[in-house]
């Protein structure tokens, strides 16, 4: 697998990052053991880094998968606001992953300079952790153009993980063209960029080659996070990334079916899912209602629901 360098001073990693949301309890598509098996298979194929987050609740699963793969790097993220909260998040990750030094740690879902200002305590704690050698590289994830632009100017930032796909699906504050300009701005500053949601939360899977080719055509993007939940999906995606022919038999195995957010009829209309949705795709009428065009199937709403009403099917 082709190796890339994340920005001017970042890590050398495989072009594909394993997006572990697809094997986490947050989406519930696999058992923990099945997820470990898929992760280990991906490592054997040359994928050498994993994207996760505190909210995914899968540190133990990842720890089991990397037990005999010390070379694998891990990106995690948290919503921490204060220094104290960030310190707790870092120690939780170090303990659960059984690693004294974390490879990457990001502020999760930053939207603008204002959002970053509100998380300044957490960011300064990340910087201190980097100085102490607790974390090697720090950064942000974002669904916003202004998040990319403001993040690029943060002192000490190494990497940005933005939403990006050829239709601009999921960008919360502007157009695809504006996002590309923001990414170019960050990249020119030497910041590492790896893209998320390149299939638009499943909306663009009918032409996966187009989705991948679009990302690979952008000079400022070095890596791609891909969610995979089977060995066949690993094989399929790696063939696409490498520009090779995908056998018909493999295409049939991973035929991308339509997926959607299911809302159970026992919804209590509490609104916690609406607050948790980064896309503004949910609203409350008599019960929670989803705008399928806006939903990117991240599953964050399901984690927020106290009555377990929401899941991706």
From TrEMBL:
Q: Does the keyword Signal apply?
A: no
Keyword Iron in the entry? The reply is yes
Which UniProt keywords are present, listed alphabetically?
Iron, Iron-sulfur, Metal-binding
UniProt cross-references to Pfam families, sorted A to Z: Aldo_ket_red, Fer4
Domain 4Fe-4S ferredoxin-type intervals: 258-287, 288-313
Which top-level group of life is the source organism from?
A: Bacteria
For this UniProt entry, the molecular function terms from Gene Ontology, in alphabetical order, are: iron-sulfur cluster binding; metal ion binding; oxidoreductase activity
Q: What is this protein called?
A: Putative oxidoreductase of aldo/keto reductase family
Species this protein is from: Desulfosporosinus meridiei (strain ATCC BAA-275 / DSM 13257 / KCTC 12902 / NCIMB 13706 / S10)
